[in-house]
């Protein structure tokens, strides 16, 4: 029987450091984080126009005329609640 050398001890893996799980051991389930999606409150002109199903130019004209409130800055932003109120004001009742 040969005695183990220092090199053999370095190559030997202790049980707790083994990378491969032992056979018949259950694999722990990985926790998945729930993804939370937050709807944007302010929409740029292109998205607001799509939201209202109209052209960007029509939306800009309505904002310029004061029919739809707009947040002015480098780019115009439209609040979703203001867009919903615009839809409610212009809804037609068909009987």
Strand proportion, as a percent range, falls in: 5-15%
Alpha-beta classification = mainly alpha
Characterize the largest beta sheet: strand count, sense, and whether it forms a barrel. 2 strands, antiparallel
Could you estimate the helical fraction of the residues in percent? Answer: 25-40%
How many distinct beta strands?
A: 2
N to C succession of SSEs:
HEHHEH
Calculate the mean pLDDT score and round it. 80
Strand order of the largest sheet: 1-2
Envelope shape: rod-shaped
- CA radius of gyration is 32 Å
* Uncertain residue segments: none
The tally of helices reads 4
Distance between the termini: 100 Å
Structure commentary:
The protein is mainly alpha-helical and 95 residues long. It has a domain at 42-89. The chain has helices spanning 6-11, 45-52, 56-64, 80-89, and strands spanning 42-44, 77-79. Helix 2 crosses helix 3 (56-64). The protein is rod-shaped, with a radius of gyration of 32 Å.
Give a brief description.
This protein is mostly helical and 95 residues long. The protein has 4 helices and 2 strands, in the order H-E-H-H-E-H.
């Amino acid at each position: 029987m040969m005695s183990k050398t220092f090199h053999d001890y370095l190559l030997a893996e202790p049980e707790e450091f083994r990378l491969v799980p032992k056979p018949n051991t259950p694999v722990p389930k990985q926790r998945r984080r729930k993804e939370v999606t937050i709807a944007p409150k302010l929409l740029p002109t292109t998205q607001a126009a799509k939201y209202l199903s109209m052209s960007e130019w029509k939306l800009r004209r309505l904002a310029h005329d004061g029919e739809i409130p707009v947040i002015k800055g480098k780019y115009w932003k439209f609040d979703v609640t203001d867009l919903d109120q615009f839809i409610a004001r212009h809804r037609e009742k068909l009987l």
